[in-house]
Amino acid sequence: MNALWEFLSMSDANVRYVTLGSVLLAASSAVVGCFTVLRKRALVGDAVAHAVLPGVCLAFLLSGEKNPLLLLLGSFVTGWLSLIAIDTITSKSRIKEDTAIGLVLSVFFGVGILFLTAIQHSGNENQSGLDKFLFGSAAALVGQDLITFGAVATLLLLSVLLLYKEFKLVSFDMAYARTIGLPVRALELVLTTLTVLAVVVGIQSVGVVLMSAMLITPAAAARFWTDRLGGMVTIAALMSAVCGAAGAFVSFTAPAMPTGPWIVMILSLLAILSFLLAPRRGLVARLLLQRRVRRQMMRENILKTLFLLGESKNEQGLSYTRKQISERRKMPLLTMQESLRVLRSKGLVTHGSSGWSLTEAGMKEAQRVVRLHRLWELYLTEYLQVASDHVHEDAESIEHVLTPELEKRLEELLNYPTADPHQTVIPQQP
């Protein structure tokens, strides 16, 4: 608690620089990264992050000093050249974009390492710390760096705010954007420029190796929490800002711990939690949904089985034992017992001395399932020309997910049929 209080008070100017710089970098990168992810260009961010290294080295070789603005300019130029190279290779050859990205990334990064090695053996005293661009050194941020970060972050956020609707259209429906006359190519260039700019500014904090994680991870994590672009951008920015401050706190309490990698580690942890626990898209939520659907299908299959048993005897309302139900439709005994218990609690079946039978409400629900099954069988045979003896399995799967709207559409399309392909009566709606 004492460490947290000291961190929040931030009496040390360097702590303020590191914290604010990390927050600005993380939040602005996440906002731009949302559009990169939605445009399915996540790997491009990784390529740009590795391609800026030769630009940093060339700027140092030409100037002989570590002028932050010159280094940023050099990295921006090579970052842009890497994108041009990717587009050229993709459009002028048969090489796919992912292969082109791999080629450009490895070549540019290899050239950067070559230049960096040459600088280290040149004897130039100003080279000290230049290798920090590989892995970043947020703890070395000073007031001038904070001004640069603040200016670039403001530029990134203002650009997204002013062109939000246009970026949204380009990200989701480029064809429609062209149709209404938007300058799609120009907007793509602006988005690409913002991506390069976000990467270029971030390399001083987290380095070229980890910068793509700063760009992509928060956007990918935020996508699991919302279906709205505005919500995605907001969540990604807040998540990154919190992780930026958390990384600075870890570095403050344990000086041997680097800020940049810890920001990425915390971001990755939040991303994993999002993948697992997001309420609708998370893995746990999907597994629970699948479990509910399977149980619902099992209960509907039991209702349908009781109906078919009565139909085979031309008399509904009779009772049947679990053995008779199992002989008609194979299912695990424990699963059947649990499903029958739930059906009874819902008032769809009743249990007597001679077995299980459908209630009035259960009969209506069973007729609905059988009706959907036979309508779908008829559709498959008449419109998709599937043999009548091959449609049962498909109908078994689809009968549980057909909505009332689709049911009505099927009836209209089939001209309100009364029998399925096997000439079995289709139950009518009660």
UniProtKB/TrEMBL annotation:
Topology in the lipid bilayer: Multi-pass membrane protein
InterPro entries from the UniProt entry: ABC_BtuC-like (IPR037294), ABC_TroCD (IPR001626), Fe_dep_repressor (IPR001367), Fe_dep_repressor_sf (IPR036421), Iron_dep_repressor (IPR022689), WH-like_DNA-bd_sf (IPR036388), WH_DNA-bd_sf (IPR036390)
Annotated keywords: Cell membrane, Membrane, Transmembrane, Transmembrane helix, Transport
Domain of life per record: Bacteria
A biological process term (GO) from this entry: response to zinc ion
Segments forming domain Iron dependent repressor metal binding and dimerisation: 359-427
Regions that span the bilayer: 20-38, 43-63, 69-89, 101-119, 139-164, 184-203, 209-226, 233-256, 262-289
Subcellular location: Cell membrane
Pfam family, one: ABC-3
Annotated GO CC locations: ATP-binding cassette (ABC) transporter complex
Coiled coil: none
GO MF term list: DNA-binding transcription factor activity; protein dimerization activity; transition metal ion binding
Family affiliation: Belongs to the ABC-3 integral membrane protein family.
Name of the protein this chain belongs to: Manganese/zinc/iron transport system permease protein
Organism encoding this protein: Rufibacter quisquiliarum
